[in-house]
């Protein structure tokens, strides 16, 4: 009996996770995810880069273009940088997710940013969530120091 109940629970969880991305509100101008915010006093990703050269942390709003989003359930996104690299944005306590159609949109996030070294293990995990091939994942062999943002809220600007 316990086995049957366990299997049913696992089945319902798997089905729910499969539909997770479908239950998220599509990204349209003004749509909010997480804490309700606006774009007032937001700085650009380039301005954030400059601030973090002299300051350890930044708390506030950052505006940028979404480059990628977690393909599994929208649990993180990346913002485009001028040099072609990206800035990782995760969500506070994974309390909310964003839709896949947010890629290419201008958004503002509010939260905390800092320079962080990301381990090989986490870089590989993120690559897998982005849909990278096993060969691409295997090429990740060095940790990376980069900007990391933990966002309390997101608002779509366009």
In short:
The protein contains 4 helices and 7 strands; from the N terminus they run αββαββββααβ. With 158 residues, it is of the alpha+beta class.
Q: Can you tell me about this structure?
A:
Pfam families: DUF4920. InterPro entries: DUF4920 (IPR032577). It comes from Sphingobacterium oryzagri. The chain has helices at 2-18, 45-54, 120-129, 134-138, and strands at 32-34, 43-44, 57-69, 76-80, 86-91, 106-118, 144-156. With 158 residues, it is α+β, with helices and mostly antiparallel strands. The protein starts with a helix and ends with a strand. The chain has 4 helices and 7 strands. Strand 4 and strand 5 (86-91) form a beta hairpin. A 5-stranded mixed barrel has the order 3-4-5-7-6. It has one domain: OB fold (Dihydrolipoamide Acetyltransferase, E2P) (Beta Barrel), CATH 2.40.50.
Helix content: 25-40%
Q: Tell me the number of strands.
A: 7
- The second-level CATH architecture is Beta Barrel
Report strand %.
25-35%
In the CATH hierarchy, the third-tier topology is known as: OB fold (Dihydrolipoamide Acetyltransferase, E2P)
Poorly predicted segments: 10-22
Radius of gyration of CA atoms, rounded to a whole number: 17 Å
Largest sheet: 5 strands, mixed, barrel
Mean pLDDT: 87
**Helix-strand sequence:** HEEHEEEEHHE
Number of helices: 4
The main sheet orders its strands as: 3-4-5-7-6
Structural class per helix/strand content?
alpha+beta
Span of the ends, CA to CA: 52 Å
Q: What is the CATH domain class?
A: Mainly Beta
Query: How many individual domains?
Result: 1
From the spread of the alpha carbons, the general shape counts as globular
